[in-house]
Design a protein that fits this description.
Elements: E1 2-3, H1 4-11, H2 15-24, E2 31-32, E3 38-40, H3 42-56, H4 61-71, H5 79-111, H6 122-128
Antiparallel strand pairs: 1-3, 2-3
Amino acid sequence: MISIGEMSLRTNVKVPTIRYYEQMGLISAPERSSGNQRRYSESELQRLSFIKHARDLGLTIDAIRELLELSERPNEPCAFADEIATLHLHSVQSKIKQLRKLEKELKRIVSGCRGETVESCYVIQALANHKLCAGEH
């Protein structure tokens, strides 16, 4: 059995986050020692590692919950897991596209600044007047 501190060290997930995942039902409430310490199984450690990796990839708690439920039915087709990952990929790609627009506009605004004082600063002027932007962002 593994303590919550050991779970934290082995997965790089903070103790309060482990407790949060417990409250959310993503990991089972652990057994308790005679001293009332949480004691997790190796399978809960693996489950927490799965959750951590999924969170690192930006998946939502709901998506993770669905994937965990799927992982408990290993003989079912994986189409739904693929669908979850594909939807997330499209979301990430959309965010990247939006961030590229923001990057382009910020570069343009920064490069347009020739003022020596705040009064003549193009950055301040562009932020104050959306009409000075090159396009929607």
